[in-house]
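Quick question: what would this complex look like in 3D?
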Amino acid sequence: MTVDERDVRTLIENWAAAVRRKDYEAILEHHAPDVLMFDVPPPPESRGIEAYRKTWDLFFRWSETPIVFEITEMDVTAGAEVAFAAALMRCSGTEASGERVHLPFRLTVGLRKIDGHWTITHEHHSVPATK
Amino acid sequence: MTVDERDVRTLIENWAAAVRRKDYEAILEHHAPDVLMFDVPPPPESRGIEAYRKTWDLFFRWSETPIVFEITEMDVTAGAEVAFAAALMRCSGTEASGERVHLPFRLTVGLRKIDGHWTITHEHHSVPATK
């Protein structure tokens, strides 16, 4: 594993831990101002850090304490300037019906090194289509 | 736009055109033997080029001539060795009910330059969850 691969892996693990603490500052710390988010629920895309932040408002309304947001398995590919990671994840939340749901999902993260710091410019979260 | 960004964009545009021609050889031409696919329908993940090929069997059973598989908008980020692209796409197909469906979807592609050639090692296709 290269130093860049290790750094990207650590950054994503720390980001997932920040989600579990509901720590917005740490969740957003390594994101680009023009981050492009493809989230599990609609809308199909959210552009920019403010729209990205709102996707977490939605998640935290659905999730409940203790927050489950775990990396099951993750592949990291990193060059000197650009990297991406693909992961199998799981989270838990409560549907409008009151039903508690355990949701496995897929995550792809795209990063660019900006001023020497790995920065997330893209996230893609999804579940397989059900029909 | 750098030469690498242009090359990755062209590779993905050619891949989408190969899908529209149902040209398996060209669809698979620039993929790694251990490609990791997160597709729109289940299963949640497909590992390896044979499993990846089968996801296209499923797509072509659902799709119909003329095949719609178009890039609406695409952002490409490329370093010297690693790249990723995020795109809004659309396709069309026919459900088991006989209903013709026009499906906008999201695509993220991860690539690595291997022996001087850009190679797709990861694809993530999805639609937002409906519930």
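Answer marked as accepted. The mean pLDDT of chain B is 96.
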